[in-house]
Amino acid sequence: MKLRKRLVIITSAYSLMLIYWLALNLTHHTSSTSNYYFGLFEGLEPLLLGALGIVTSKLWGGRQSELGKSLFYISLGVMSWGIGSVIWSWYTIRQISAVPYPSLADLGFLAAIPFWAAGIVKLSKTTGVMLGLKRPKRRLAAIVVPVIVLAISYYLLVSVAREGSLVSSGSTSHLLKVILDISYPTGDVIILSLALLVFGLSSGFLGGRFRRPIYILLGGFAIQYFADFGFSFTTTNGTYYNGNWCDLLFVTALTVIALGINLITPPHLAVKETAAPQPEPAGEPPVSTTNNIPNNIPVEQPPDINLNQPVQK
Asked: CA-CA-CA-CA torsion for 218, 222, 225, 230, nearest 10 degrees?
């Protein structure tokens, strides 16, 4: 599938989701069936985006190359998140009640974290991160950045979003709930730290036509971080509903990630799409590609020359 067609699919899907979200919020719907079906489409879109990402990874040899592996794992993470969202919407549509916690939806959401982490690590091997680590200041940054992210995340995801409690009330007697309460913010810290490290350590080394797509891809993970913060914050204070502002952030984050993946297209394929041959004008004779002389005009042939004959002055 050509890059242009993939980009049209991605932007069209996001446009439809944005129109749906605007319709919900402009009409102040918070608990209608339309809200629950928004959650369903919020899960189906990443399945489509992830499939397009896998197509792009195959253009790089799939799991035969580091970049192909990176795009493949990140795409699997997008699809895993979509599966979790589809299961979530199934609870809301069928039961029309609070989604149980833990639930099968958490399997999809949590599985996305190791896929994304593996994809970013593979991406680091192709973006000059190892060269960046040879500089003392950047080695220091590799230590300081995760600490800063951890401090900010504790404030946002625990102090603000969860009212100062890492483990939610009623979870202390349920081991699985405790594990999930800790896993979600920890996963956010890991993904954001890896994305920032790849962004910072590769700057100055990463150039060419893939610099912007990779930065777009990493920016999608930053948006995903704030979407998770919004979800934790609104569920804690009881203001969450299907289709609220953090759901739009989720849709935006996954779309941006998908755009970054699909823009990393092999150069020879991108050149073929941009340099398509132009059709010949109708009614004109074809033009020779060798000497630019029309084929219907006779060309005078040079006389035969005998190399053994002496040249006359």
From this structure: -140
Residue 183 forms part of a structural domain: yes
SS3 299: coil
Lowest mean pLDDT among 78-92, 164-178, 223-237, 290-304: 290-304
d(CA 21, CA 35): 9
User: Is residue 93 domain-resident?
Assistant: yes
- Give the residue numbers spanning the domain of 113: 3-274
Residue scoring higher pLDDT (111 or 278): 111
Q: What is the 3-state secondary structure (H, E, C) of 74-143?
A: HHHHHHHHHHHHHHHHHHHHHHCCCCCCCCHHHHHHHHHHHHHHHHHHHHHCCCCHHHHCCCHHHHHHHH
DSSP 277: P
What pLDDT shows up at residue 312? 46
Do the beta carbons of residue 269 and residue 59 sit within 8 Å?
A: yes
**Model pTM above 0.90:** no
Residue 296 has pLDDT above 50, yes or no: no
Rounded CA gap, 82 and 46, in Å? 5
pLDDT band at 133 (very low <50, low <70, confident <90, very high): confident
**Residue 12 to residue 247: CA distance in whole angstroms:** 18
Q: How far apart are CA 241 and CA 36, in angstroms?
A: 9
CATH number reported for the structural domain that contains residue 245 in this entry: 1.20.1070
312: in domain: no
Contact between 70 and 123 under an 8 Å Cβ cutoff? The reply is yes
**DSSP symbol at 173:** T
pLDDT of 145 above 70: yes
| Within a domain: 292 | no
Domain count, the chain: 1
